[in-house]
User: Fold this.
Amino acid sequence: MIRRPPRSTHCISSAASDVYKRQGNKLIKFKSSDIAVAVSVEGGLFTPVIKDSDQKTISNISEEMKDLASRARAKKLMPTEFQGGSFAISNLGMFGIESFDAIINPPHAAILAVGTGKKKPTVLDDGSLGVATKMELSLSVDHRVIDGVLGAQLLQTIVDNLENPIGLLNI
Assistant:
């Protein structure tokens, strides 16, 4: 199960640490917040894992992800750098895909699908018409180990943080 998602810089990684996996007839709690991020490489896909992401700042995670992605494309990752993880993120938005449903791969208990941001007509807070950049997110959860309501709360926390990104900065 995922505990109630906190409204913090580490909304995904904090929740990911309270994810359980099935091992036979037992549920095993993940000890760390290890988030796998899908990276397209020639001939396939790698999912490098950002270990202990709940202990890192957004800028640390960004730097580490750039390094892991670069080494994944060069096929220079160590097996320990792409095995495991409790939560995954797939961003097909970088290829212009507006929305998609990602499939959970073990041992992950959930995966966040991120679509592209597009300018769309919208009703603004004051009721007037305007243009806003909108994107679609989809969260797939393994209901054997994560309650769907808690997954929805996590997704809402992610949306809240994306809509108000100043809260993600450690200032």
About this structure: Confidence is low (pLDDT under 50) at residues 1-11.
